[in-house]
Design a protein that fits this description.
With 194 residues, this protein is of the alpha+beta class. It has three helices and seven strands; from the N terminus they run αβββββββαα. Its main location: cytoplasm.
């Protein structure tokens, strides 16, 4: 129960926001359901599934995969989907295959593997990429630099929980030991190291 007008307005605003978000999600789902395909994405890739008539084989299809263009259709017919891609793809790493003679799976490798796509083809309805909840990624899927950073953070966090020195503190201690070994004439017995 709201105790002041301000509290009431905040509650009402939150309820209105939630209702508006629900309405937007429902409209987005309707727009996506009306497309002649379904699609999913990870940070590095997009998978598109296009239903085709039962019995369709690869040789029955016209498929064009270019850096910024996609077209798929049955030979001699209007394309099922065709247009400019939302973002660029790595053509050499993108593929398509017929599944169970009734659907075509198009796998697109994103050129920029750190962005979410709003749509597959630019003229199709967009999704709100701020609402995407990515699946937990595996450490092995990360690039070398990112993986190193994540492993260092995990190690440092574990060391802190155990009350042990972090990787940076261990480096400093190692450097000090080397310096002491190189300069035995110096007395470090009363030195305070921070």
């Amino acid at each position: 129960m709201a105790s002041t007008i301000d509290d009431y307005d905040d509650t009402l605003a939150a309820e209105e926001r939630e209702a508006c978000n629900k309405e937007l999600r429902a409209r987005e789902q309707q727009e996506q359901a009306a497309l002649p395909y379904t699609w999913t994405q990870e940070l590095g890739e997009v998978d598109v599934i296009v239903p085709v008539p039962q019995g369709t084989r690869g040789r029955d299809l016209n498929v064009v995969l270019e850096k910024k263009k996609l077209s798929l259709g049955i030979k001699g017919q209007e394309p099922i989907m065709a247009g400019e891609l939302c973002k660029e793809i790595k053509v050499e790493d993108s593929t398509w295959t017929v599944q169970d003679n009734k659907a075509v799976l198009i796998h697109l490798e994103k050129l920029n593997q750190q962005t979410w796509w709003e749509n597959v083809l630019t003229h199709h309805p967009k999704i709100d990429t701020r609402k995407i909840e990515p699946a937990n990624s595996k450490l092995s899927e990360l690039d070398t630099e990112t993986r190193g950073m994540v492993e260092k953070m995990m190690f440092d966090n574990q060391q802190k929980q155990l009350g042990k020195p972090t990787s940076d503190e261990l480096k400093k201690m190692e450097a000090l030991k080397k310096f002491q070994a190189a300069h035995p004439e110096l007395d470090f017995s009363k030195a305070k190291i921070s």
